[in-house]
Amino acid sequence: MNHKIKGYFWACISSATFGLIPLFALPLGQKGLSHDTVLCYRFAAASLFVALWMAFKKESFMITKRELMLLLILGVLYAVSAQYLFISYDYLGVGTASTILFLYPVFVALLMAVFFKEKINMITLAAILIAFSGISLLYKGDNGVSLNPLGIGTILLSALSYAVYIVVVNKSKVQYISGYKLTMYVMAVSAVFFLIKTQITGGLAPLPDTVAVLDLTLLSLLATALSCVAMVFAVQYVGSTATAILGALEPVVAVAVGVLAFNEVITKNLVFGVLLILIAVSLIVLSDYFYKRMKVKKVIL
């Protein structure tokens, strides 16, 4: 019971802190910093925080050449997902963008079906239909005004990139790497990715003031490093299924941030769209869990 309580606690911390990304990221953009600059600083600082944690835990930093190649691919995928998420903030509300991003388990299910021939059961199919019904509600506002198609496209690309990232982790030997080591190297590669981009587009801009330094520190420490480390703890204590379900706190927190910090309006369509997407993701996670349980029982029988 103590392990479960700890697991639920860390799962909530992980999803809630990840939902705080726009609270710290948007003020940096409002001060004239480009997405590439913010993301470069964010991932560089986050990788440093995780590296310090690994040093404290006396964990090895060694990786093989094969692991390095996979980590380079994962770092680029994570960077692309983060970039599209930040771009979507410019066109959609924070709550809407974060809710649609939470569709990534739907894309994971579709990718596994297309590329690895995994069967989509009836529950998963129903969940996919519910999820896209939720998107349609978010797309068409209560006042009849549609969301920006470019914003919808970028956030869907963000969710798809993150889904590919998850599939690569699950279907390669990199899944056996320590969660801390995986996180540290992925963040470091993402930081290098954006450093190269900033050099092409005009250079890495300095942080303008101490408030920006504080926002960046909180973005890197709370909404990135702590989120990833807390997720590792949660999976260790209660498993990936419970951790994924409690990940529903992420869009809920993001919606709250949008309303309280950026004066976004809560509409009926937003509420129902969020609920439908949360239901769809929960159905996919639970159907996968029960399907695996049934397979185990069949093997035992």
Automatic annotation (TrEMBL):
InterPro entries: AA-Vitamin_Transporters (IPR050638), EamA_dom (IPR000620), EmrE-like (IPR037185). It is a multi-pass membrane protein. One of its GO terms (cellular component) is membrane. Keywords: Membrane, Transmembrane, Transmembrane helix. The keyword Transcription does not apply. Coiled coil: none annotated. This is EamA domain-containing membrane protein RarD. It comes from Pedobacter caeni. The lineage of its organism: Bacteria, Pseudomonadati, Bacteroidota, Sphingobacteriia, Sphingobacteriales.
